[in-house]
Amino acid sequence: MFYFLIFISSFILSLGLSFLIKKIALSFNIVDLPEGDRKIHQKAIPLLGGVAIFITFFSFLFVFSRHFLSGNLEFRHLMGFFVGALIIMIGGVLDDKYNLKPSTQIIFPILAVLAVVIGGVEIEKITNPLGGFIYLKELLVIGPILIGAWLLGMMYTTKLLDGLDGLVTGIGAVGGFIIFLFTLTSQYFQPDIAFAAILLSGAALGFLVLNFNPAKIFLGEGGSLLFGYILGVLAIISGGKIAIALLIMGVPILDVAWTILRRLIKGKNPFRSADKKHLHYRLLDLGLSQKQTVLIFYFLSFVFGSSALFLQSRGKFLALGILVLIMAIIIVSFWLLERKIKKPSLLLHICCAPCGTYISRELLLPKFKLTWYFYNSNILSEEEFNKRLLYVRMMAEKYKINLIVEPYNHADWLQKVSGRKADLERGARCQICYLDRLKKTAELAQENNFDYFSTTLLVSPYKDTDSIKKISQDLSTQFGIKFLDADFQLNDGYLKSQELAKEFGFYRQKFCACEYSLKQKKYEKI
User: Fold this and answer.
1) CB within 8 A of 126, min separation 6: which ones?
2) Residue 484 has pLDDT above 80, yes or no
3) Most exposed of 237, 289, 368, 468 (fewest Cβ within 10 Å)?
4) What pTM was estimated for this model as a whole?
5) What mean pLDDT do residues 411-440 have?
6) What pLDDT, on the 0 to 100 scale, is given for residue 278?
7) Domain extents for the chain?
8) Contacts (Cβ under 8 Å, ≥6 apart) of 103
9) The CATH number, out of the four listed (2.30.30.100, 3.40.50.300, 3.20.190.10, 3.40.50.620), of the domain defined by the range 345-525
10) 220: nearest Cα among 184, 265, 168, 154
11) pLDDT (tens digit, 9 = 90+) per residue, 146-159?
12) Phi, psi of 275 (to 5 degrees)
């Protein structure tokens, strides 16, 4: 009856706080906007939802601390646990409001781990799958290092998993319930951990009322990290029940591991780049709804998590092996499916590597069979032409992009813009230049049966985007080839392309290309 009352009370408090925090987030405009390729919601959704779970969980933990500290735990353990969670929430609120850089975001989870270790939480022993135990207490730094790796892994698993309404929250509720059942069995009876676990489950389900699709509030950065943190700590303080947490979180953990490996293979920083290759996004691409997708995750977490109730140590490792095998089959299946599905072809006019690389890597390559077309006779000299082409070739080779290079013919371009010397930037001369390059691109796309054509000229805010799109749409009608009318400047596209250029050390020119734009630039400085 006590556990039932805790569950109901935490559910009600979490639900009430979720309504309150939703209003607070809206009043301070702390919302997640539907911007970027990975966002699938259609309107601004308030963040900070994790605050409701944090307040509910730890308020009950302190009020009923005698139940939580009835076993081997001491008050210093509770304080370390609480301080770590508080640090995560502070960092999460700051990130939700100010969108911190990844290098700044990671500081808070690391400090949270230090708080747990300083609070005295430790791994005394781990089960040896061949029998017996491996004792870590005498190995000095090994224990804290394992705690740090474990908690960071759990936190970043739930963080990266947080892509669909209710996904992390529901798995957190399932995880809490499985640990509750496990710690009430006669063999592993731990009423202190059972209390904390059912408390987590109640708090998660209270928030899930507003977080399930269609979500009225999101967890935010702090909330997505908090679930991994709490489940990770509960696995440690329950006597190193790591295998149970791995079974509960097995599919998400393996998905994150594959995501990191896949990004490393492609030469990307796995923690700074984002994509829609996670398993939950792939299930959506197959036609499943958000509700159906999250229910599949709930089911897998419950089935594999509950298997721990009936399996001994070797059986749990066998179940983990089955999970790895299932994930490997899923990965191979999607890889084969991607190879089978034919991507539409796109001929992209590229003016330089800084403008072309970011949008190609992040937006176009996942969706199109991409070819770059370097046609830029407007460049004032052959030396400048080759300088820009050098980095275009390097990036085309790096990302396995087909490249077509049109020979340099500046004299021909000068004849086309004859008499337009006095025009200002974006004036009639630029319109002629746009038309020249876009027409050649559309002609080539038609001749080679491309499905689409477009241009990196749309990346720069310094170009006349409206004119470029109007010319392209007219050419689309003229040549019967589709124009990819994409907003390459969306979600700070230009800024991110420049940041990537700095990272790769590209040559970045400070003028458009022709001698007239260079003179205009010098005139503006004078």
Assistant:
1) 133, 134, 136, 240, 242
2) yes
3) 289
4) 0.66
5) 85
6) 76
7) 2-249, 345-525
8) none
9) 3.40.50.620
10) 168
11) 889 989 999 999 99
12) -155, -175
